[in-house]
Amino acid sequence: MRTVIGLEVHAQLLTKTKLFCSCSAAYFGAPPNAHTCPVCLGMPGALPVLNERAVEYALKAALALHCEIPARSVFARKNYFYPDLPKGYQISQYEEPLALRGYLELPTGKRVRIRRLHLEEDAGKLLHRPEGYSLVDLNRAGVPLIEIVSEPDLSSPEEARLYMEELRRVLRYLGVCSGDMEEGSLRCDANVSVSPDERLGTKTEIKNMNSFRAIEEALKFEVARQRALVEKGHPIEQATLTWNEALGRTELMRSKEEAEDYRYFPEPDLVPLQIDDAWRERVKRSLPELPAQKRARWMQEYKLPEYDISVLTDERSVAEYFESVVGLYPHPKDVSNWMMSEILRLLKESQTMEIALKPEHFARVLEMVSSGQINRTVAKDVIAESFKTGKAPDEIVRARGLSQISDEQALAEIVAKVLAENPKAVADFQSGKEAAIGFLQGQVMKATGGKADPKKTREMLLQRLRAT
To answer: CB-side exposure of 283: number of CA atoms within 13 Å?
Structure first.
């Protein structure tokens, strides 16, 4: 049975102000209705003025998605009545959008076609109270959005999730959207249909999916539901559904609207938007290297495994940090291993994507390990302290006396003492239990505060044990 999925993604743009007025767009966590004015409240006579930065951000996204940018686009009024829409219409784009006919390449290599990308304003937000009434917060009303509509090229819920993850990655690389789905800055509606042949089936639209997991699970449920109906010969009813995450099922929200229901017509208070070649080229030159390009280059340049590349290119700041460190310590696989084990752990603990450890400090730690000045155990402590305090690695090592013990005479005395204090482990090794060497090496490391040279320690232990 054939599954066909198309996604409509709304991404809030990271502008300081709203799309058509000077109210702050930083609404999250603000007191209700604090970021409003006559324009975003829809007061009679208040006129919209287009935010140029929002247009530039939308152009960045469109060019990154390989879209065609027409010289002219037109804003339109999308008419519908809902309590969170104070004007009774939403300023959007319809017949002449900002961008058309692009594509997004997935990490698998598949290209998903983009039908259109257009600018529009966000609606407000309803706060439903358990007492049975709702409150309206219009702080979000007028915040700039781009809507990115894919062609129905996705063939599974898993592929839809991959598309969303890669799209979020691109938007974050561009710096035009935070991608925080839990805060509503990236939202997705999915159109899905199943059919027993190559013809398109009747589609349903799913809303209210606020995580990648929810997108995948909602689509899995809906695909299974539709397949069961088709197999029994029952018709699929076109409708808008909501995802009930608590129950793990889609539920009817309303009958599906068509474009005619919105009575689109050109926005009379805004002139057509003209994008000339110079503006388009200026924005194009400002684009950073995008995730797909970076992954391909790293494969050739650094010869890293695909897994390392996918992890380290997920966030632009992490990818750029990696390249800065490799520029100072040209051993990509070593840098990759240490970053994935230590840096990403520290970022997770600090709940930030800002790496406080200077690239030169991180590179210096790796040099100290390579030269034998400190061992790996000590290096982890030095990285953690430098990450938290900003102190240079050499300063930390000197102040705490962490230099690795490589002197054979000093090490020999500690090894002899450990062997004398652990006769059972010695006997176990000599009876063929070679794992006992690990215990003895651990005791030497414990006695030296982790400063013993692991390689020399093991060599000396084996030499002594085999001689007895």
So the answer is: 22
- Cα 262 to Cα 257: distance, rounded to the nearest angstrom: 8
Q: Give 109-112 contacts, CB < 8 A, sequence gap 24+.
A: 110/153, 110/159, 111/153, 112/150, 112/151, 112/153, 112/154, 112/163
Instruction: Report CA torsion sign: 174, 176, 179, 180.
Output: positive
Whether residues 244 and 379 share a domain: the answer is: no
Residues 380 and 237 in one domain: no
Q: Which of 347, 374, 400 is at the close of a domain?
A: 400
Q: Do 225 and 342 share a domain, yes or no?
A: no
Q: Are residues 37 and 60 in the same domain?
A: yes
Q: Do 35 and 104 sit in the same domain of this protein?
A: yes
Domain hosting 373: range is: 289-400
Q: Are strands 89-93 and 75-79 parallel, antiparallel or unpaired?
A: antiparallel
Which tokens in the block code for residue 281?
Answer: 């080229």
3-state helix, strand, coil in the chain (%, to 5): 45, 20, 35
Widest Cα–Cα separation across the chain: 98
The structure's pTM equals 0.85
DSSP string covering 246-315? TTTEEEEEEEPP-GGGG--EE-TTSPPEE--HHHHHHHHHTPPPPHHHHHHHHHHHT---HHHHHHHTSS
237 and 381 within one domain: no
CA 287 and chain centroid, separation = 18
Digit-by-digit pLDDT tens for the chain (468 residues) are 899 999 999 999 999 999 999 999 999 889 999 999 999 999 999 999 999 999 999 999 999 999 999 999 999 999 988 899 999 999 999 999 999 999 999 999 999 999 999 999 999 999 989 999 999 999 999 999 999 999 999 999 999 999 999 999 999 999 999 999 988 899 999 999 999 888 888 999 999 888 999 999 999 999 999 999 999 989 999 999 999 988 999 998 877 666 567 899 999 999 999 999 999 999 999 999 999 999 999 999 999 999 999 999 999 999 999 999 999 999 999 999 999 999 999 999 988 878 999 999 999 999 999 887 888 888 999 999 999 999 999 999 888 876 666 556 667 778 788 888 887 888 888 877 777 888 888 887 787 777 777 777 787 888 877 776
Name the domain count of the chain. Answer: 3
